[in-house]
Amino acid sequence: MVKLQTPAFVFMNGDLVPWDDARIHVGAPALIRGISVFEGIKGYWRHDESHLALVALRPHYDRLQRSAMLQQLPFSMSYQEFTDACFTIVKKLLSEDRDLWIRPTLFAVEGHWGLDTVTDLVITCYNQDKKTPDPISLGVSTWQRPIDTALPYRIKSAANYQMGRLARIEGRRQGFNDMVMLNQQGRVAEATGSCVLMVRDGTVVTPPPTEGCLESITVNIIESLCESLGIPFDRRPIDRTELRIADELALTGTLTEVAIVQRFEDLEMPEARVLSRLRDEYFACARGLRANPIMTLTPV
Ligand code: PMP
Q1: Which atom of ligand 1 is nearest to the CA of 220?
Q2: Any residues with CB less than 8 A from the CB of 166 and at least 6 apart, and which?
Q3: I want to staple 41 with a disulfide (CB 3.0 to 4.6 A). Which of 58, 102, 163, 234 is the partner?
């Protein structure tokens, strides 16, 4: 059985709480209607006195605020308070020479159909091995991304992962590591937990968020890396058939980082020269070996 890591502590109700005591009531809107918004933040281990650096902390805080606002969830924490909360749990769980993944979730713990909503920011944090992502196989799901007026993809809500879960199950049965979800027009939206990068004729292409994907922080970083490396970058709609004739494909996101697609459906992909270069540059910046103005790193 696959078991989720169970770290010793969770940040909850403004303080550290032992994992086994971190409970939410069965009557909470977070549980009965799936009302919560969240972020995933990556911390990279570094061999200098800062030990760990959190990537794009401010953009993650800003997106959490936007998600909370759109989902009508009270979230009054300042950026400083949010940073302090993240540091509290990170410092507790930090482990020598390992990376971290931090998941701040704003749960609706009380309220009824949007009345008298009370929220709590819970932060869980998981150790991760330092490694570059393995190449992956990718299929296309029969499940589609909903539109902006029906489960808006711009909100990073737990509910938004319903289709992703079904797509993953479908993909697993077909032997794929991950699946592309198409939008209601049949064009590429995103994968189950990351965005799609495609290379055609030397240009890195990704769909704009209005095609049905999350406003990705990593894609913004990739765009900036392309700029610094002189690689053309374009945000435009991608047809399904373009994936089959693409020169290179990869998935990208905070947790996925840059995962090169080795097999797309039944096709073996050619060597991913451009995207491998971007992946290496991404890690060089994340580990502090190279500076990039958009990849802000907050040392812990
Ligand atoms: N789409 C989905 C559905 C995701 O879960 C993620 C990961 N947060 C992304 C895209 C990539 O977003 P980001 O680069 O901000 O992590």
Answers
A1: 14
A2: 141, 143
A3: 102
